[in-house]
């Protein structure tokens, strides 16, 4: 029996080598993908005769990557530590440390919730339930195809499966769900075909309603529970698909049959149609799915998508870098629809890490990524950066975490209300000045005397 420890040790060493080889291969692929992005960007710049800008300074990079990944500026301590780090790969390390961090999860949860249901807060409990589901999905780095399937084909009790709150937000309306799902997950302006054939793309009204037919069978049943006074109140809904259900083009009496956008009819039973649709949407053969999310993530980091607007895929808006978009989309699929992998690939490029300062060759460039395009801050980015700049959280040490987060959520809602322009969908850039923003903060935080003292103090800078 004595040789057994040697056998175990040999197996352990072999297993460790396999893990090391696999990790190195993955890192190698990430590096290779990043280099390929830069090669294609540089080739386009050379073709256009444009000289790119120099690399960004460490301070510029750190501010940018923190805003893009955590939604706020770095702390003073983080700036000092980064500047004192003399390692050559400190930018790569910073990216790795931020992706998956709690601040990253908080920020990208807010982003995804806004993308899914906008900033509408008419049902805060439902919104918070969906937000918790998104947070959990991002925390375990759920594959993006599974993430979308869970939303589109959600069923069961929303207390147990909060993804169903996405469907409930649109009142289970086949028309509203079709318009939103086609835009967010496929990048298609299909909502234009709701009332008439699309004027510039090859989408017809019958295409829109053929897609809407996939959602004609959803039904919901309220779930009740007694409150403290013994009264019944709705605490959730049970979502299910039923055999009956139809939809037709307005002005006609003929039911629309569920048909995919590639022209193929759906042969699944009525209770499985949404699952069949999610399978088609997330298929590797779908020409829109992976391209759309790559385009959205690229636009978030780079300030402009390959296709603009983000839901403008089609002949009217060809991509600025078709080969690069195709390559990133295929790479994303090969690596298991891993959003974190996609982010690392983009963030480690020279293109992302260039300075925003232009030169005489590229000052007119708007589509070739020869310099870092200036990105206006979203309302949330501005708000959380203001809290960091004024030291708000450090002044609230006596409050517990839940109380502090509830306080910030309340302040954020009031802040957005004060600066909103009526369009409460998706990305909203803050267009105010620092003076205006500090006025907003002062108004909604009138009960926080210490914060008011800081804001009013001379020499306070929020930039």
Principal-axes geometry comes out as: globular
Strand arrangement, largest sheet? 1-3-2
SSE order: HHHHHHHEHHHEEHHHHHHHH
Q: Total helix count?
A: 18
- The tally of strands reads 3
User: C-alpha Rg, in Å?
Assistant: 25 Å
Biggest beta-sheet profile: 3 strands, antiparallel
State the secondary-structure class. Answer: mainly alpha
Task: Please tell me about this protein's structure.
- This protein is mainly alpha-helical and 463 residues long.
- The termini are far apart.
- Helix content is 51%, strand content 5%.
- The radius of gyration is 25 Å and the shape is globular.
- The chain folds into three domains: 4-98 and 290-347, no CATH class; 104-283, no CATH class; 379-456, no CATH class.
- The chain has a three-stranded antiparallel β-sheet with strand order 1-3-2, with no helix packed on it.
